Amino acid sequence: MAFDIEMIEKVYANMAARVDKARDIVGRPLTLSEKILYSHLWEGMPNQTFTRGKDYVDFAPDRVACQDATAQMALLQFMHAGKKTVAVPTTVHCDHLILAKNGAKQDLELANKQSKEVFDFLSSVSNKYGIGFWKPGSGIIHQIVLENYAFPGGLMIGTDSHTVNAGGLGMLAIGVGGADAVDVMSGMSWELKFPKLIGVKLTGKLNGWTSPKDVILKVADILTVKGGTGAIVEYFGEGAESMSCTGKGTICNMGAEIGATTSTFGYDDSMRRYLAATGRQGVVNAADKVASYLTADAEVYANPEKYFDQLIEINLSELEPHINGPFTPDRGTPVSKMKEEAAANGWPIKVEWGLIGSCTNSSYEDMSRAASIVRQAVAHGITPKAEFGINPGSEQIRYTIERDGIIADFEKMGTKVFTNACGPCIGQWDREGADKQEKNTIVHSFNRNFSKRADGNPNTHAFVTSPEMVAALAISGRLDFNPITDTLINDKGEAVKLNPPFGDELPTKGFDVEDPGFQAPAADGSSVEVVVSPTSDRLQLLAPFEAWDGKNYTGAKLLIKAFGKCTTDHISMAGPWLRFRGHLDNISNNMLIGAENAFNGKANSVKNQLTGAYDEVPKVQRAYKAAGIPSIVVGDHNYGEGSSREHAAMEPRFLGVKAVLVKSFARIHETNLKKQGMLALTFANESDYDKIQEDDTINFLDLTEFTPGKSLTLEFVHADGTKDIISANHTYNDSQIGWFVAGSALNLIAAGKA
After folding, report:
1. Is the pTM of this model over 0.85?
2. What pLDDT, in 10s, does the model give residues 491-505?
3. Any catalytic annotation for residue 160?
4. Which of 62, 68, 95, 688 is catalytic?
């Protein structure tokens, strides 16, 4: 079935006129990204040209999606907004709160028991406010969105950075914080700085061991984790058209790892095939009527250098399989270079685990191609040297691959099949022996491989690669195994060379499922009661943040000067902390515990200026809050990269941090800080970062003159009485300054002033 077909048809009904008007106003051919953006303006018909990377623009997204870890806070905020029902189609997906340990059945049973309170809350709120609810075990949010909701030319937002996965079906799908989602669910516009555009021209065709995953691994290596910040990446060319829809989804999914606003592909036959296979022929019929509007104008792709701010060209016929890592997804190594790179860097060669799945690579095609490698190993009598686990992307995928014998193929090699959920990809993995913190290597088909992300062990070297390469490396047990050239020894002592992977793009017998796990909301939810116990340690109703008093912040203390990479995982860890995602006070006990203190090189150890002693970051900040003393956080480049989790902004706000001053921000985190009424500032001169001292007291000198485009001046008073005056830039417009003044964007919504 096709959800929301009336909404989709309405989008298409408006698209031609709006795009034609935009083309006239802009005065040139349009990219696909521009067509979607201009056709989703809040005011409807375009009436002006927007400048990329400069103009803030109000948009009208078609839908919202939330996963259970972020949905708790988003829905708690939505309840505070005082609305009767959501204004746009919205779904909640229970995929994060399931710990991978023993296998699908036992792990799901345990999750339903341990997180019953949270699941019941999400179910009841969804039922009350007209939200579609996908139960635990139904699958991973982005795979379910691709299978059921994504459509070419649409605009959606989601409270997870990998919402961008839906670009595989020609959408602009953008990760946001919960406060942004609440705006849209409340019937308000959604603001975004008009993105710059990066074009990626794909020539040639994938062959042999190379897969769509290798395209984004190569792009990440080129652009780095911040190279796509503020930009949409639009893929095109013969190579793009030759790939499957789910392969395109994989590429878009990992666009989050280069900081891109989102990524997308033009509407083509692979999308038609996928939509039809997933029961959405009606969407195909509607899309075909406006097909020329669902891809860029021909002139754009013929002369892309004229229309994109940056252009990258990749010949798929020459592309090698890549293995990216460790500790960052943008460190790319072609498989042919891994032997020398691993030796030069001292990476552990022995592979302990191979993991396939997550929202990035859990499609039927992914499972099918990986299984083709497993079948060869079993047929040749090759015993796998590493442990192996898979997470199917949805119950529909799991049911179908079980029917087609793919799960049985995996199980013949001793594979552990985990629940249809995120699992190890987000640290929800109870890995035996991880607590010993031994140096080791794992390979996976996930999207992120930051330190401690998968199993909590800072010494686990995690490498990102394609599902088929994960299978080959896990079977060989060696990181430096090159399946293109190397052989394996079977149980008869014979040398065996693996053939390249193969698999069906879509199941030849069609998809099938008994119970997809969907719960439709009540037609009238007014009588549905949502109960949150005041003694719960999992859920906590929100109180409004205090409005700004109109005065300069003075006497503020430096909480921490974070050194190097500080992702949202460092600011608000996942793993065991996920259970507190609906309880702001409890989750705040993990605030910045993973950040490295620039003054002592340690994590979760900062100086309490009231006592002179070193203590855990949250404890020191709670001491400042109790004493009524404001504080600030100082950080490095790309601060807040990674997950969209707004807890990384809400926790410091809740505990009394007033400002975050860094060299540069990741996009979503900067917006989250603004939404929560905090000051998100950047050094006007990056070298001023070095002037910040451990015992500094900070005074804002001109916050009372806070206006768009005007830098703020901060006085850093050092322990010896000397001072440094530092200029801080910001990107606040008038509306965003209004959020700061009111105490948060949500305060304005609740007051009916937004």
Report:
1. yes
2. 999 999 999 999 999
3. yes
4. 95
